Amino acid sequence: MRHPLVLAVPTVLLGLTVATAADWPRFRGPNGTGVATDTTIPVQFKEGEGIVWKVALPGVGNSSPIVSKGKLFVQSASKDGGQRLLLCLDAASGTTLWTQNVPGSKARTHPLNTLASSTPAADGERVYALFWDGTTTALIAYDHQGNRLWQQDLGPFQSEHGYGASPVVYDGRVYVNNDQDRVNAKTGEEIPGSAHATALLAFDATSGKPLWRAERKGHRACYSSPVMRETPDGGKELIVVSTTALTGYNPVTGAVNWNWDWPWPEGTEPLRTVGSPVLWKDVVFAYGGNGGGNSRIVAVRAGGPGTAPKLVWDKSSSRGGFSYVPCMLVVGNRLMTVHDKTGIAGCFDAATGHEVWTARLNGEFRSSPVLIDGKVYMPSEAGDVYVFPAADTYRQLARNRLGEGVRASPAVADGRLYVRGTEHLFCIGQTAK
Predict the structure, then answer these.
(1) What CATH number should be reported for the domain holding residue 248?
(2) Which domain holds residue 398?
(3) 146 CB contacts (<8 Å, ≥6 apart)?
(4) Is the pTM for the entire model greater than 0.85?
(5) Residue 368 lies in a domain
(6) Comparing 95 with 323, which gets the higher pLDDT?
(7) Burial of 28 per CB tally in 10 Å (0-12, 13-18, 19+)
(8) Is residue 169 a part of any domain in this protein?
(9) What is the pLDDT of residues 394-416, one digit of tens each?
């Protein structure tokens, strides 16, 4: 019988980001782990108790908040589709400090997507945002006072689901996984004009100068963000995943260190990767899914000089057993997941993929969970934030109702949990009794 022992939490790779320990500088925080160093976030919260402030956000968007040097950044789009917005708020009070507008137009998206689903990234000096105007995409850098510093136009973007990629910044370089549709999902035919548009892009963070471009084989537009891995020789490599391949790149030159092609047997549908990869020891976890409920996780041991990557384990489900849109959490030697439609949360052994437990939660899930002080905070699309221990048995600690939907992923910084709802931004923390 398994004991409800809370799992040991690994140290966050703080050396991989120039942001301070209190910052949440990109989608899913430091190196995209979803793991916070804060310990004072309340388990239970509601209006007047645990909710420090709540402010209305203009427009609509699935962009997740980030926090850098006491300022919170989040993207939105006007309800008529005519404007794309980057908002800067004071993280302590929720006061809007400035707003930048970029013109746009209405464009087709998936019903669950928006015209502002990208999450910005920051490095303590600048904030970097991707804007899709409905036809083309631009990467724009601002300082913390809202002054535009540089812009790089990335060209046309094509996808049946709309845009949703998020930039990341490491060691003075901004990276964009510019993945696009190369195949019409209904006809199976190549989309004209999209050849060579799919690529991993690197820019100088200070000047915006293009540094390198690594071509990738496109299939279906994927929205996963790169993560940085420390290599055994003390170096670093950028990990990128999409429908076609899982690849480790030299972050300085763009050279391929190793590559693992997703095997999709004849008659099976290549699954879209929306969630970003996560790391455990020398293993990379990648996962994909589709609207029909199919999902798949692969554990791939990273390659290296003279060593090819190796598949460690592979699990598939046709009943919604694993993550698709929500990202996964690595906690000690466990992998935590939740499926979009079924609401099945799961805990798996990282080394083998064997199930430790599963539990069906109420509702659907698009937001990614975060780990705070040994506890998982998992918001549902209905706006219920489930809290349970990161342990070898499931036990619900709280189900906090925000009163509006949540599709964006939370941020954690300076003792506060920030949750973007469909109408408001919530700041959760210790409040006076």
Answers:
(1) 2.130.10.10
(2) 14-428
(3) 88, 97, 98, 99, 100
(4) yes
(5) yes
(6) 95
(7) buried
(8) yes
(9) 999 999 999 999 999 999 999 99
